[in-house]
Amino acid sequence: MSENLTDELDLMKISGPPSFSDMPMETVYKIVGKVDPYSRLAVRKVCRKLRNVIDDTDPGFKYVKVDLSRYASRLWLTNIGRGAICYSRNSNDPGCTVRRTSQSKSIEKTQLDAILDDLAVIVKNPKLRLDNFVIVSSHEASKQFVEWIRDIAQSGILLHTKKIKLDIFPLKDVFGVLSHCKPGFLEDIEFYCYDSAGKMDEIINLEQWKRAKSINIEGRVCEDIPIEHFFHFSRITIKLRKLSVSDAIKIRDDLMKSAHFEYAYIKIIEGVDPDVLRAINPNYHPYDALDPFEHGNYTFRISSDKDDLALL
Question: Global pTM?
């Protein structure tokens, strides 16, 4: 009896504590579920088993923001400002330094390659379902970002996000990103575009555009888009050079009578023509231009400088 007990105790000393490879999968999943989203990017590099578990686990966040600035890039997995992963260029040698809180590590990848590799891990998770994906870019970085998302899509993966915001993107790259979002899942499109050349006709023919519910375009004037291409949206924020009477009539008869319409904010560079407002509301009087006026179920407001029209 005593000899058997001694043998068992000796065996326990030799074997030591259980490793991850010895743990039941259910236990490993529970452990991974308690690891914060940022740390999972590091933990998945420990071993294949942990990588497979993390890649098969709900990522645990609904928000991603990527800042692809020239000298330092950042990745947020929460809309709370602190805690981002920072990827900065090394000044004296190639590669970059990756930092988060008090920890840092120098790697051989460029800052852009490093952040996009980490982002690929996130996007390739089949259970990823985002509420908001924000990308702030420079002209040089936006091109590489579009190439990156195109490579992701070639493996059969489309980006699942309800809202996408593209900040400082050329129009051709706006098209490149939107075309790789999941149509129908994408509801809210927002972009700041500093050029107006090309691709807008292709954007408005995307299924992602046609099936979205909200549009906010900043920076560019939407004079090359027929006004009716906005009428399927519930929420509209755009800039026009001018609003014609014929387009105002379309807004009155089509957009405002649709069951899904909620609001429209239209900035008009050349100002709001009183004839346009009379087309919407025959009772409009220019002396009342600064006061809200009603038509049907909607209220209209004009800004003090008379270049903003709000349909609420």
Answer: 0.85
DSSP type of residue 125: -
| pLDDT tens-digit readout, 176-205 | 999 999 999 999 999 998 776 668 999 999
Q: How many residues does the chain have?
A: 312
Contact 202, 230 (CB under 8 A): no
Q: 53: exposed, middle or buried (C-beta count within 10 Å: 0-12, 13-18, 19+)?
A: buried
Sign of the alpha-carbon torsion through 214, 216, 220, 226: positive
* Per-residue pLDDT reduced to its tens digit, 193-241: 877 666 899 999 999 999 999 999 998 889 889 999 999 999 999 999 9
**Residue 55 is inside which H or E element, if any?**
helix 48-55
Contact 59, 49 (CB under 8 A): no
- As beta bridge partners, residue 165 has 134, 190
Q: Is 137 helix (H, G, I), strand (E, B) or coil?
A: strand
Query: H/E element holding 207?
Result: helix 207-210
Listed by start position, the domains of the chain span 227-312
